UniProtKB/TrEMBL annotation, chain A:
Its EC number is 3.1.3.16. Residues 259-268 have a biased composition (Acidic residues). Gene3D superfamilies: 1.25.40.820. It catalyses: O-phospho-L-threonyl-[protein] + H2O = L-threonyl-[protein] + phosphate; O-phospho-L-seryl-[protein] + H2O = L-seryl-[protein] + phosphate. This is RNA polymerase II subunit B1 CTD phosphatase RPAP2 homolog. Residues 165-185, 210-276 are annotated as: Disordered. Residues 210-230 have a biased composition (Basic and acidic residues). It comes from Massarina eburnea CBS 473.64.
UniProtKB/TrEMBL annotation, chain B:
Residues 163-234 form the RNA polymerase subunit H/Rpb5 C-terminal domain. This is DNA-directed RNA polymerases I, II, and III subunit RPABC1. PANTHER family: DNA-DIRECTED RNA POLYMERASES I, II, AND III SUBUNIT RPABC1. Residues 12-114 form the RNA polymerase Rpb5 N-terminal domain. GO terms for molecular function: DNA binding; DNA-directed RNA polymerase activity. Pfam families: RNA_pol_Rpb5_C (PF01191), RNA_pol_Rpb5_N (PF03871). GO terms for cellular component: RNA polymerase I complex; RNA polymerase II, core complex; RNA polymerase III complex.
């Protein structure tokens, strides 16, 4: 069976979706590799990170799911670092190498894994790191609609130093088209351009970047408007001439027919055929 | 034998078995290997890699080997007009036993850098515990990127190498076909390769032989009626 153009388009569209998913997964991996050796300054303070560090961290973490964030913490721990990516200190050492430890908490003594004890450098970092984790979206980044996981807030002491950068929304380039001679043609061109502008704005609103895969694939779903053209004058519906209202799809059942036909039906017809 | 084993720690015996299986794996793939290498006795292993305290020094276990001429031939594509002198898609392999408790992205990237520095074609890493998920993700995407070695990196867990699975009686013989043999097979049966049955590259036996996507293995089973029965599978 030869593949039609439509089938080919559908296959390409799905291939693009998988491609985009792979690209996002690679971005996540790169972000984790980047954040593993973060921050670069040895004396960086997790309570008051520099604006550049904070911005880089927030941008890298925006595409994460909570599980990716857990993976980041795990990787940092293997590298013997505090799990909070803005903290340069090594992770805490448990008092002994025993597998389980007794810990005094407000609820009494708890028995915890050594691994759990050695995740952070201090409780403060743990709070700050989990503050970020709860803001991450469960939805994978390749399925997200635009602006969903837009801004990650950090728990910092120097909040004033961090500019809240809003993404600049650039209007499409307004290069004036050459003026057509015909006014009608000019209007049509303007209308088409307005439509393209509107679609581009919609795409930006959905969080798509130019050059990336569009979520609304215009090639696959096409709405063609077909006008209904009247060929004759409309006429009101009428009952068909000789079929009773009891007819079921044209068939008149016997029971209803008998009622019409048997006019000489009386209660005594059982003895009609009897002799005498 | 039982007396001999009592003298060594369980960890050392475990590592000895994993080491032997790894050596056998390299031999079965076609790398050059001496017989005394893959049949190393426990006492010889303990003398080579054991430490004073009876534990294993994993850095002593690392080894590299070269493909035999036969293997290199098998991995060479037949010459074409465009490429009259094709190079074999195989080369020196480096096998490393990692002693870290947890293996993550950091260790894997260090290992890859080491492979690239040492001009190795491919690498096998044997870890104590399964790697982290992100490291596996890097590994999956690493075959194509410039960061790693050309032939890719394979990772095994020590636990999986304690026993050589291909020696089990229920595991049939697997023979890798060269590109030329594969073409011949497809021509003989007038098939396209997509019409062959498949085997996953994550299949334990496929991992043992280091199959790559697109290769074909011949599987020879015992048959009560025919004596033996060959089937072919396309690695995917």
């Amino acid at each position: 069976m030869p593949a039609t153009q439509k089938q080919r388009d559908v296959a390409l569209h799905h291939a693009d979706i998988i491609e985009q998913r792979k690209r996002v997964e690679k971005d996540v991996l790169d972000a984790i590799i980047d954040l593993m050796d973060f921050p670069e300054a040895r004396n960086a303070d997790p309570q008051r990170p520099s604006p550049a560090d904070a911005l880089r961290f927030r941008e890298a973490v925006a595409i994460f799911q909570p599980s990716d964030y857990d993976a980041l913490i795990e990787e940092r721990n293997i590298a013997a670092k505090c799990g909070y990516a803005l903290c340069p200190r090594p992770k805490r050492k448990a008092p002994s190498a025993a597998r389980k430890h007794f810990i005094d908490t407000s609820k009494g003594v708890e028995i915890v894994d050594r691994r759990v004890l050695e995740v952070w450098c201090c409780d403060d970092c743990a709070r700050r790191a989990l503050f970020v984790k709860v803001q991450l979206s469960e939805e994978p980044a390749w399925l997200r609609q635009g602006g969903f996981a837009g801004d990650i807030e950090l728990m910092v002491e120097n909040a004033g130093e961090h500019p809240r950068t809003l993404p600049l929304r650039l209007k499409g380039s307004s290069s004036a088209p050459p003026k057509p001679a015909d006014v009608e043609e000019h209007d049509a061109a303007l209308a088409w351009q307005a439509r393209d502008d509107a679609l581009a704005d919609l795409a930006v609103e959905r969080g798509e970047k130019p050059g990336r895969l569009s979520k609304a694939n215009r090639e696959l779903v096409q709405d063609k408007i077909r006008e209904r053209v009247a060929t004759k004058a409309p006429e009101p519906p009428s009952l068909p001439t000789h079929s009773s209202h009891m007819a079921i799809e044209g068939h008149v059942p016997r029971t209803s027919r008998n009622e019409d036909d048997d006019e000489d039906d009386d209660g005594q017809d059982w003895d009609k055929h009897l002799p005498g | 034998m039982a007396d001999e084993r009592e003298n060594y720690s369980p960890n050392l015996i475990r590592m000895w078995r994993a080491f032997r299986t790894t050596k056998e794996m390299c031999r079965d793939r076609g790398y050059e290997m001496l017989e005394e290498d893959y049949q190393i006795s426990l006492s010889a292993f303990a003398a080579k890699c054991g430490r004073q305290d009876g534990e294993v020094d994993r850095s002593q276990m690392n080894f590299s080997c070269l493909p035999s001429a036969e293997m290199a031939k098998k991995y060479t594509a037949p010459p074409t007009a465009k490429n009259p002198d094709p190079q074999p898609d195989i080369g020196k392999i480096w096998v490393e036993f990692n002693g870290d408790e947890n293996v993550g992205l950091k260790q894997l990237r260090d290992y890859m850098a080491h492979l690239v520095d040492g001009q190795y074609y491919s690498g096998v890493m044997v870890t104590m515990k399964p790697m982290t998920g992100m490291a596996l993700r890097l590994l999956r995407g690493a075959a194509g990127i410039a960061e790693g070695p050309k032939g890719g990196v394979e990772v095994f867990v020590e636990q999986d190498l304690l026993v050589n699975i291909t020696k089990h009686e229920l595991v049939p013989t697997h023979v890798l076909l060269s590109k030329e043999e594969k073409d011949h097979l497809l021509k003989r049966y007038r098939l396209k390769e997509t019409q062959l049955p498949r085997i996953q590259v994550t299949d334990p036996v496929a991992k043992y032989y280091g199959l790559r996507r697109g290769q074909v293995v011949k599987i020879i089973r015992h048959s009560e009626t025919a004596g033996r029965y060959a089937s072919y599978r396309w690695a995917i």
